[in-house]
Each structure stands twice: as structure tokens, then as C-alpha cells.
Design a protein that fits this description.
mainly alpha; single chain; two-stranded antiparallel sheet
Length: 247
């Protein structure tokens, strides 16, 4: 049985309006298996939640990158089945980075409207630390692909120093991985002509990005699980709290 982080409350009309698509499109995606079925409420009225909204945003981004519905279906089929709305937002942010430039210059008023919430000076500083926003007087250079994810992370209780340090770690290791993968691919395509190289690059990039993201998410969950296990208080006799043997 699928569990939801929060009870789905959106009707199909509300979901379509929030996602900026038509009700017919939502139903079409459902019949194609691109969108999970709604949760049936009283009188068998379907209700949708944040995961549906995030999946629609990911589908929209994949279409923006030029992927066909068949390719999008294959992409979504390869995703882990238990992804939350936040996980899907991360995938969308990564997908949007395939575009040559997803940044746009916005006024502070436009930025707040796109963010869907009031942004304080501290919020803007945190978004800048995450590489989402670059201040330029009364305007901002905004990475639109990362904006939604960055806004969600504003509520995560991390200091700006920790955010900067985390960003540095991710950049360092992602560059190392990209360098090694590039070296591997160069060895495979060294005998091919230029058209083959461009074709392989265009088709390999989304697959490699998805593989890296999925592997990282699994590794991070494992590391966090080990950390949480190590920090749980011990009961007398060496048993962790909550792990006491039952009679």
C-alpha cells in the first residue's frame, strides 16, 4: 500500500490549475501510466497530492528538454517507486540543468512571485549560498531550474556556513565524477565520427545524470540511517532506545 507524506486534498481541476495543464492532460497522463492514480475519497472522488504535482512538473521539464512521451515513460519507469515530492523536485532540478542556460534576470518582486512566498533578506542570502540566486542591485540572476528546490530548502534548519560547505563538497565530487566519466566516454568514442559523438553525448547525459542521482540518494539515505542509529540513546544493557527486546 502506498503511503503519502500528507493526505491528498486536490481535485483533478485544482491539480490541473496548480500545474498549469488541462484536466484532459492529467487524465491522459494517468492512462499512460505517467501519473499515479488518485486516492479515492467519498463518492469515489479522486484526490491528488504534492507527489502528483511534483511529477507533473517533472514531466513538463522533460518535455521542455525535447523528450518524447515514450522516452519520458521509460525515464519515469526507471525511478524508484517510493520517491517523495521533494525527491521528484530534486530530479526536476537536475533535469533542468541539462539546458544550456536556465537562468533569468528578475526583479525582487518577480522573484518573490515565482517563489510563491515572501523572501526576507536572510532567505535571499541562503538562496545565494545555494547558487540559486545572484544579487545585482535591485535585480537577481535566478537559476529557474533550482528555484523551487531552493525555496523548499529554506525551511531546512541548516546554517549558511553549512550550506556553503555542503555546496563545496557536492561541486568537488561532481566534477571528479564528471571528469572520470568523460575520460571513459572519450575512450569509447575516439574512433567514431563527430556526428556519432554528438548523438552519444545527447543520449548518454540524461541516463548518466539519473544514475548518479539515484546512486547518491541511496547512499545518502544509508549514511543518514547509520548516523541516526549511532546517535540514538542507549538503554541499560546496551540496547538502543526503541530496540528493547519484547517478551
Amino acid at each position: 500500500m502506498t503511503t503519502h507524506a500528507e493526505e491528498p486534498t486536490l481535485t483533478i481541476d485544482e491539480l490541473a490549475a496548480r500545474a498549469g495543464v488541462t484536466v484532459r492532460t492529467v487524465r491522459f497522463y494517468g492512462t499512460k501510466g505517467l501519473l499515479p492514480p488518485p486516492v479515492l475519497g467519498p463518492r469515489r472522488v479522486g484526490h491528488y497530492g504534492r507527489e502528483h504535482l511534483a511529477r507533473l512538473a517533472l514531466i513538463e521539464e522533460l518535455q521542455h528538454q525535447g523528450m518524447t512521451l515514450a522516452a519520458i515513460e521509460r525515464y519515469l519507469d526507471r525511478l524508484p517507486p517510493d520517491l517523495t515530492a521533494h525527491d521528484l523536485a530534486v530530479h526536476r532540478a537536475v533535469v533542468s540543468s541539462w539546458a544550456p542556460d536556465s537562468a533569468e534576470t528578475l526583479t525582487l518582486e518577480e522573484l518573490r512571485r515565482r517563489a510563491g512566498r515572501p523572501l526576507t533578506e536572510q532567505d535571499l542570502e541562503r538562496l545565494a549560498a545555494m547558487g540559486v540566486v545572484e544579487r545585482d542591485g535591485d535585480a537577481c540572476r535566478v537559476d529557474l531550474g533550482l528555484l523551487r528546490l531552493g525555496v523548499e530548502l529554506l525551511d531546512v534548519p541548516l546554517s549558511q556556513e553549512a550550506i556553503l560547505a555542503a555546496r563545496g563538497v557536492l561541486l568537488e565530487h561532481s566534477r571528479t565524477a564528471a571528469r572520470e566519466l568523460s575520460r571513459l566516454l572519450r575512450g569509447e568514442v575516439s574512433e567514431r565520427d563527430a556526428d556519432d559523438v554528438r548523438w552519444l553525448s545527447a543520449h548518454m547525459q540524461p541516463l548518466v545524470v539519473q544514475a548518479l542521482l539515484t546512486a547518491f540518494q541511496r547512499s545518502l539515505r544509508q549514511e543518514l540511517g547509520e548516523w541516526l542509529k549511532d546517535t540514538r540513546p542507549e538503554q541499560p544493557g546496551g540496547e538502543n532506545a526503541g530496540d528493547a527486546p519484547t517478551a
